[in-house]
Write a sequence for this structure.
């Protein structure tokens, strides 16, 4: 009986009894109720499982960080395949992807006036080098785009410091990463167009212990590229204070960074084959590459091992899904999205039978929300309502449902009509570690990592078993 029939039955009952239908009709039976017992069993087993943490330990301590083009990333590609074969998964394979190679090289930044002081930095990914002797210039400060316009001609020949602080996290506003990160991505192009000789960007974090945060920078085709580096929030604040009091602040920036063509990498796939509809697929995954500092533990080793272990767990429990569940570990999320684009392109003919694509790329913290995204707004709203019902199965894991951005690696599948789902974790401390030397295994709580595994396993199982499709049909 679907919801409309229930409502009609309630109305008829009320009319037959001679009462006005002032009482709410009974709620329709939850569409996902038949899978409650399975989900409870999956959650219990996943919460007791430390297999994801064991995998993350290998990835972090034996391989370490893994930027596109590095030998370490290719060791991770081999490791992930071996691990998933050992777990008994099928169709384990690497699908070749050409990725950019950027090399950090040597880097230094010195304050020259008003007093000598070494400054802590990380070049931004994709940055060009300085001349061998470095770039020595006066620093001008912009807190936002308006400041940049006011500076006008004073930018020519200078180094622009973009000093826009990330606001403190609150549960209401979240981390506000998207709003704060813009100068890391576009600052070099904006300042370069106005004649700057280099840019420094305040690290994108609200809480710093003198740790610089890297990330990608993108040049504009019509502006000559200029060197770009992130500095700590502490040093950004210091330079801003000196400039604000009228000091002449000069620095010397030296980078030997190199954009070194392309390299071969791969997306890694593995499956639990469907028992009834093997050609229909639920994708779960994260990105295997990371920045070239730290261990890429939260970003996104966590998402990878949650997905890998979720599938291993279903296999261990003897659960063979109606549809195929496929783990995808994408390559090159951080500086190119070549893996995400390659997957959507290579599997274009299959996307109509992708019933959902789920990505976790927000660290190993308490699951807080699911985001849902579909190319059709009506279908998206319907999918959000369906997910709200599905999450009622997840005992002890209350999740908000949000209708927007669901993950960089699944995004290219949107045009193919695939329902995209993001697993979003609580983010009060994620950006303390994000893209830094401090994103290491010791920052990961094994129990919270297991919560992520539990969420992946429960969602993947239910979406693979439920005969309906997100956004398209109810049962
Ligand atoms: Zn990431």
């Amino acid at each position: 009986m679907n919801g409309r029939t229930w409502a009609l039955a309630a109305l008829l009952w009320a009319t037959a009894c001679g009462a006005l239908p002032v009482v709410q009709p009974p709620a329709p039976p939850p569409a996902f109720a038949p899978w409650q017992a399975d989900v409870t069993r999956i959650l219990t087993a996943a919460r007791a499982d430390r297999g994801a943490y064991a995998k993350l330990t290998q990835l972090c301590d034996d391989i370490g960080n893994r930027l596109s083009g590095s030998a370490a990333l290719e060791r991770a590609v081999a490791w992930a395949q071996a691990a998933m074969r050992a777990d008994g998964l099928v169709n384990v394979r690497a699908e070749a992807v050409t990725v950019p190679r950027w090399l950090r090289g040597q880097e230094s930044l010195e304050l020259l006036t008003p007093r000598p002081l070494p400054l802590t930095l990380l070049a931004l990914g994709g940055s060009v080098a300085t001349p061998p002797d470095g770039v020595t210039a006066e620093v001008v400060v912009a807190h936002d785009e308006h400041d940049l316009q006011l500076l006008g001609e004073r930018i020519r020949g200078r180094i622009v410091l973009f000093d826009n602080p990330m606001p403190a996290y609150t549960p209401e506003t979240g981390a506000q990463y998207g709003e704060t990160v813009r100068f890391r991505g576009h600052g070099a192009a904006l300042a370069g167009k106005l004649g700057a000789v280099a840019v420094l960007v305040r690290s994108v974090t609200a809480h710093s212990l003198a740790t610089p945060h890297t990330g990608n920078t993108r040049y504009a085709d019509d502006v000559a590229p200029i060197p770009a580096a992130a500095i700590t929030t502490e040093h950004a604040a210091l330079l801003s204070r000196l400039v604000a009091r009228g000091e002449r602040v000069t620095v010397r920036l030296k980078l030997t960074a190199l954009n070194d063509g392309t390299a071969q990498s791969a997306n890694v796939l593995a499956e639990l084959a469907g028992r009834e509809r093997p050609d229909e697929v639920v994708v779960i995954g994260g990105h295997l590459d990371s920045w070239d500092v730290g261990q890429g533990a939260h970003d996104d080793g966590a998402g990878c091992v949650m997905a890998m272990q979720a599938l291993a767990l279903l296999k261990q429990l003897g659960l063979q899904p109606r549809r195929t569940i496929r783990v995808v570990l994408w390559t090159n999320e951080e500086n190119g999205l070549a893996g995400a684009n390659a997957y959507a392109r290579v599997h274009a003919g299959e996307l109509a039978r992708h019933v959902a694509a789920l990505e976790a790329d927000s660290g190993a913290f308490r699951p807080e929300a699911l985001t849902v995204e579909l190319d059709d707004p009506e279908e998206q709203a319907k999918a959000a309502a369906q997910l709200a019902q599905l999450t009622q199965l997840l005992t002890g894991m209350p999740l908000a449902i949000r209708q927007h951005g669901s993950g960089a690696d699944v995004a290219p599948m949107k045009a193919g009509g695939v329902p995209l789902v993001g697993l979003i974790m609580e983010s009060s401390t994620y950006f303390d570690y994000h893209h830094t030397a401090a994103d290491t295994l010791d920052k990961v709580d094994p129990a919270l990592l297991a919560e992520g595994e539990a969420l992946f396993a429960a969602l993947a199982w239910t979406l693979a078993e439920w005969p309906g499709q997100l956004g398209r049909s109810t049962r």
